[in-house]
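Can't paste images in this forum, so I'm doing it all in text. The chain is below; anyone willing to post the predicted structure tokens underneath?
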Amino acid sequence: MIPKPSGQTILLAAVVAVSCAMVGYLVLFRGPGTASQGAAQVPSELTLADIPFNGERAYDYLRELCDLGPRPSGSPAMHAQQKLLADHFQKLGGKVRFQKFRARHPQNGSSVAMANLLVEWQPQKRERILFCAHYDTRPYPDRDPRDPRGTFLGANDGASGTALLMEMAHQMAELKGNLGVDFVLFDGEEFVFGEQDLYFLGSEYFATNYAAHPATARYRWAVVLDMIADANLQIYQERNSMSWSDTRPLVEEIWNTARRLGVTEFIATKKFEIRDDHLKLHNTGGIPSCDIIDFDYPAWHTQDDTAERCSALSLAKVGWVMQEWLKTAVRKP
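Text version of the structure:
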């Protein structure tokens, strides 16, 4: 479904869009000027010792989540993960609550209990920043060439963003500024069994609820973290995030922060156009939202998406950029 970008024409991009319209991550390729035509990115020479963000502990959290096994919506492993995460964030001073909802099982029509997990830091502040990840795993590794109904652990696709927020929580009690911060872990991001099934159930529920109750909080920015632990890290600017005039300044601030820190894995070039949770946040919730994602990941939706293909150093690099950007962002009036 996802070929390597090679300067495809806009007409071909439209054909790909139509044929893949029901696929969870819709990736469109543009014509001349795409990132694929530039020089290969040189990885930064930063080591774990150089970075004041605990990537090793974040990686331990990633492994801990994967040790629960597959974590699709409504499963016993998802329930175990919810308890683990609620205990973790509460212990570090976050105000935790679950935003419960139900969704139709796409195979048998039964009602599946789902819940977004919300963590509030400085909940008294109305102006806020939102960090998001999805914490459900796809039911099956449907792109696996050996066994598309095998075991899918979702180490990068699910656990990486969750683990990063678990580590960021250690610094949140010391974060001072004019803005509050929320973490949201979305359920039902990809509770799908076929191309006709609906994606992004949790972010849609969250965004709809937010739009219906604007007086409770106002999110100035939202950052979605997805697939950010690949050992071969390459994070390009996502095209939707750059096309929205209200979100482009957010993307530029984050990539400028990465450049200042020397984290060259944040590449200031547009590459993929991706359907992800940021679309629901922006289009339904009206929240300026960007997607931080490394889509150049061969193990995507296969049994090979395991902790061994993820990196503590990648988590440290992304976490450091997010942490430093946030320190500046919360001080703005």
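Residues 1-24, 28-40 have pLDDT under 50 and may be disordered. The longest helix spans residues 155-172.
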